[in-house]
Amino acid sequence: GQNIDQPTEMTATEGAIVQINCTYQTSGFNGLFWYQQHAGEAPTFLSYNVLDGLEEKGRFSSFLSRSKGYSYLLLKELQMKDSASYLCAVRDSNYQLIWGAGTKLIIKP
Amino acid sequence: EAGVVQSPRYKIIEKKQPVAFWCNPISGHNTLYWYLQNLGQGPELLIRYENEEAVDDSQLPKDRFSAERLKGVDSTLKIQPAELGDSAVYLCASSLVDRTGRNEQFFGPGTRLTVL
User: Are A89 and B42 in contact (CB under 8 A)?
Assistant: First the structure.
């Protein structure tokens, strides 16, 4: 079966750095997405990786290793507004998105 | 540019009643998705349309759920009859096939359904 694993919850301090990991086992691979979802709101797109390596976008970076079935989302200079769930999703060979359950990130002052 | 529009935002019904959700995607987006999301879980695909064709409805419980996208633009998802276990947030998303291949999905605010 297809599976996306990510930690259920993480806690970090304002101003610090946090890394959220995602491992996947899917039928084929056509890209990996990270979405942010604040409580009671819809997911919003953060990043997309299709080749190995690091993609940087401001305070957020996303890394992909296809051979290891692994990605991480790195958040720097954490702000209170970064408190949200972070969803990892992989597009399989049928171009269907397989979603993880999300990682709830709690930021403390 | 207007985002994905969904209505209603909230719906409370009694079990065995019918309910319908409406979605208007971002203008020009040819692909439309309906998802179900339970608390603390990721979205679960119900159906995916490319233009007016349902290209993936394998996860749609067809005994009670139906969907349509008649003109390839807006879409309606219906449940009849609703069951207690249908309580969830129903999300609509749209995307555009482009040269990058990214095809990121843009989500609407969702409809929170409560079945009593």
Answer: yes
Is residue B37 within 8 Å of B43, Cβ to Cβ? Answer: yes
- A41–B42 C-beta distance less than 8 A: no
Q: How many CB atoms lie within 10 A of CB A35?
A: 26
> Taking CB atoms and an 8 Å limit, are A44 and B107 in contact across chains?
yes
Place of tokens 């995307």: B95
Q: Do A45 and B101 touch (CB under 8 A)?
A: no
Q: Does the beta carbon of A94 lie under 8 angstroms from any beta carbon of chain B?
A: yes
What is the bridge-based pairing of β-strands B111-115 and B10-13?
parallel
What is the per-residue pLDDT across B61-99, written as a single tens digit (0 to 9) for each? 999 999 999 888 999 999 999 999 999 999 999 998 776
Residues 47-66 in A contacting B (C-alpha not used; CB under 8 Å)? 48, 50
- Tokens standing for residue A29: 């691979």
Neighbouring residues of A24: CB distance < 8 A, sequence distance ≥ 6: A3, A4, A5, A32, A69, A70, A71, A88, A90, A98, A100
Q: Name which of B44, B103, B108 is nearest A42 (Cβ-Cβ).
A: B108
